[in-house]
Structure formats: C-alpha cells, structure tokens
Design a protein that fits this description.
Length: 315
C-alpha cells in the first residue's frame, strides 16, 4: 500500500463518489477508477459497493479506510517532525478556527507569524465549533481556536487538551435610547452600564441559530436569569442580529470583542448583565490528546496567547 493508494481509498470513502473524489484529488474519473480496480485486484477483495446513496465501504473496505487514516496521520506527524529538524525551513500548520474569530484574529496574528516563519505554509479550516470538535480527533487540523461555554472550559471534548485563554463577556444589545434604558445602572470605570435582565422578560429578542455557540451562551444567560423572552427572529449572523436590534426590532446578545468586527454602522446601546448569570464565553485552544505539536504550531499559539490571552501558553 503506497501513500497515494491510501489517499485514493480514503478520499473515495469520505466523498462516497468516484467523480467527487477524482475532482478533489485532481485526477480524471477513469484514472481513479482504474487505480481502485488495481488495488482491489491486488488485495483479492472488493473495497466498495454501489448503493442508491453512493459508494459505501465493504467490511474489508472499512478496515482499509481505518488503517489508511492511521498511516496517513503517522506520515503527517513524521513530516512535521522533519520540518522541526530542518529548523522550520519548510512545513505547514493547519489551523481550525470559527469564521468570525478568523476575521478578528488572523489579520493580527498571521503577519507576525509570517515574518518569523516565512517558509511555513498556513492552511486555515473555517468551521463552527461543533464541526471543529470533530475535525480535531480526526487529524484534519493541528489545533483549533474556538469558544467554550462556561461549563465546557475543562471538559470540552474528551479527545482534546483544552487551554483557556481569556473570557469574553456577552453584552445585551438594544436600539439607542431603548425604553428600558432607564433601568440601567452605570458603574465607574465600566465601558457599559449594567442592565437588570428581568426588565427584559417580556421584550422580543433576535437570536442566532440554536446550534451556534453565541445562542447557546445566550440561552444559558436567560435560563440563569429565569426569564423566557419571546424570540421573534433567528439568523445565522450575529451581526445581522445586532443590526436588527439597533433598529428596535428586538434585543440580542453579542460577544464584546465581536463588536469591533463591524464598527461604525447601525449604532446601538450595549449593556453588561449581572455576573451571577455567567454572561461570557471563553476563547480556547484545543489540541488533540497525545498528538505531536510542531514548533511552528507552538509559535503560532504563543503569538495568539500573547495577543488575546490572559496568560502565555507553554505547550
């Protein structure tokens, strides 16, 4: 089994289609089909069978696929180690990160990293936190930059080592001069006044979708406050929710640091909420347990922790 053959079978198994796999591998479909036939002939067994929903692995194919993943991961780790031996003269890191976090973090981190490691290729995989949690143990990314809910900081995904960097408050966002603004209490030195959430018990809210971490954090806050305000609209974008809130349609929650991503448009009022409701999420680094962490990855994460963390990571 060559590395190329392992990659062929792995890609077909994941795509469940010869044509899609060929496109991903930059091959023609007949060439890939011929290669698979040769592999099956040499093994004396079929690896795939056709169904109405696409190609599926046979029992032998499942074993081949698992071994292919393991061998390719070992080979990838070996390449990383060789890169370290060559003093970072070549190599790559694959960064898993959520979309809006990438918008905020990468323009700050990458210029400095590129200056220190000009020959290291950086591959960015942008997915939501749930998808990144699956990509990490599968070896598709070297590490993940993502957010954790308050109860997840030390228990986020059994297959990963998680390093909390910094908490980021979620703030309540409303239209300017909202009628409930009279309930807000200003505190010396605080960026925003504090709003008692109970005053919004019957106010409409605009929320992001339930599978998103911001929504999950917002729901936890409302549950702790023991209120269930009506949700009149859901959207995939926190910025859409913020802009709609600025027009007076309903209140929403936005992470404090995300307010700087789209500055200067749709002005709104922001409020902190009572700390007893755990109104925050935590920026974390997640690394696969027992995985080799390259010097390039360690350097990248050290820069991230210096710029965004409460402490400097020492992996």
């Amino acid at each position: 089994m060559t590395e190329r053959e392992l990659m062929y079978v792995k890609t077909i198994a994941e795509e469940r289609s010869i044509s899609r796999a060929a496109k991903k591998l930059f091959m023609t479909q007949p060439s890939l089909s011929s290669c698979v036939q040769k592999i099956e002939a040499s093994l004396g067994t079929r690896l795939f069978q056709r169904t109405n929903t696409g190609l599926v692995l046979t029992f032998a194919g499942e074993r081949y696929y698992q071994i292919a993943k393991d061998i390719l991961k070992i080979y990838s780790d070996f390449e990383i180690e060789i890169s370290d031996i060559n003093n970072l003269k070549k190599g790559r890191i694959t960064v898993g990160i959520t979309v809006y976090l990438a918008t905020q973090v990468l323009p700050v981190i990458l210029p400095e990293f590129r200056q220190l490691c000009p020959n290291i290729e950086v591959s960015v995989v942008e997915k939501n936190s749930t998808e990144l949690a699956k990509s990490l143990p599968a070896g598709e990314i070297d590490f993940a930059l993502m957010h954790a809910l308050p109860y997840e900081e030390t228990m986020l995904h059994g297959g990963a080592d998680v390093y909390p960097l910094a908490r980021d408050p979620l703030v309540l966002v409303t239209a300017k001069n909202h009628p409930k603004s009279r309930h807000a209490v200003s505190t010396a030195g605080a960026k925003y006044p504090q709003m008692p959430l109970q005053s919004f018990a019957n106010e409409p809210f605009v929320m992001v979708n339930k599978e998103q971490k911001i929504r999950q954090a917002a729901d936890l806050i409302l549950n702790k406050a023991q209120i269930s305000p009506p949700v009149i609209l859901t959207t995939k974008s926190f910025e859409t929710a913020r802009r709609l809130s600025s027009t007076g349609i309903g209140a929403t929650f936005v992470p404090l640091r995300y307010l700087d991503i789209f500055p200067g448009s749709y002005p709104c009022d922001c409020y902190f909420v009572d700390a007893s409701f755990d109104p925050w999420w935590t920026l974390c680094v997640a690394v696969q347990k027992n995985a080799y962490v390259s010097q390039a990855a360690k350097l990248f994460l050290r820069i991230v922790s210096e710029k965004y963390g409460d402490r400097v990571l020492a992996l």
